[in-house]
Amino acid sequence: MPILTGHARLAGIIGWPVAHSRSPRLHGFWLEQYGIDGAYVPLAIRPDRFATAVRGLMEAGFAGANVTIPHKRAAFALCDSVDASARRAGAVNTMVFRDGQIAGSNTDGWGFLANLRAHGVDPEAGPALVLGAGGAARAVAAGLLETGIRVTIANRTPEHAQALAHDVPGLRVLGWDSRSEALADHALLVNATSLGMQGHPPLELDLSRASPRLAVADIVYVPLETPLLAAAAAHGLRAVEGLGMLLYQAVPGFRAWFGVEPRVDEALRRFIAADLLQG
Ligand SMILES: NC(=O)c1ccc[n+]([C@@H]2O[C@H](COP(=O)([O-])OP(=O)(O)OC[C@H]3O[C@@H](n4cnc5c(N)ncnc54)[C@H](OP(=O)(O)O)[C@@H]3O)[C@@H](O)[C@H]2O)c1
Questions:
Q1: 37: which DSSP letter?
Q2: Pocket lining: 220 vs ligand 1, CB cutoff 6 Å
Q3: Which of 193, 198, 248, 269 has the most ligand 1 atoms within 8 A of CB, as the residue to mutate?
Q4: How far is CA 247 from CA 39, 142, 221, 236, in A?
Q5: CA distance linking residue 221 with residue 100, whole number of Å
Q6: Torsion of the alpha carbons at 48, 51, 57 and 60, rounded to the nearest 10
Q7: Whose CA is nearest to atom 30 of ligand 1?
Q8: Residue range 170-229, pLDDT digits in tens
Q9: Any idea what DSSP says for residue 7?
Q10: Looking at 72, 138, 179, 186, which residue is catalytic?
Q11: How many helical (H) and strand (E) elements, i.e. helices and strands, does the chain have?
Q12: Is 72 assigned a catalytic role?
């Protein structure tokens, strides 16, 4: 941690709880790498104190903050303005304070697409099938739709998929049980469920029916190589891990708060991966 001056730029992550968040390590890595006079701190804020706390941070001169569970929808409601990414996601994960106003955006979809491209996968190559209908699935599906491709979601609870499709125009819905046979017609599969995450059951999927051009992306990043990604590699399919999405989604906030475009590189990946291994 560098020694701060009185001019230090301040930002942080608001969550409840927040101790599990890797964002302070991630932004701290960049602050040190670029020798920036600034700090990024964890902010544990109870849901009923969210609005008061955000206004207090603004008063205290913070440049902005990330927002995580359970505050993303409350942040959306609190912002004075939100951009298209936040409207599409229905949630805000990045707030920038300027002239007493809060501008909100959602960088998850952007982070997902940036990570795909970093792995040499063109998101516009063809139709995408996204598994899940939670907050992450919504951001990923909306980001993919924005590229102009056909996007279909499949979810265990069909009502959740229908509700999401109702909110996000252009999104198609497929039955959960049809997910394996649909792989032949898609260029990209995304697991945006919590299946495959440490402590959760693996995602059951028959990749033998997949088109050979299918790219398989998992947004789960604990473990780094999920059973789905291992199966994709075993079938000779391109596999895209979820850690990169976590790293890239942090880029726009850091740029806005600290004035530097940070790099997502192997050193950062190793640093955060090592941190994840420690639990
Ligand atoms: N890489 C990143 O930067 C990044 C960012 C955000 C999230 N994530 C990861 O993405 C995952 C989802 O996050 P979220 O915020 O979207 O969570 P969420 O809102 O709670 O949604 C969870 C989703 O998983 C599905 N699911 C849960 N258990 C299931 C099961 N046993 N069988 C089938 N489907 C099941 C749920 O289906 P139902 O609707 O049927 O319950 C729902 O679609 C988490 O693992 C999270 O860590 C990664």
A1: S
A2: yes
A3: 193
A4: 18, 19, 11, 26
A5: 36
A6: -110
A7: 195
A8: 999 999 999 999 999 999 999 999 999 999 999 999 999 899 999 999 999 999 999 999
A9: T
A10: 72
A11: 11, 12
A12: yes
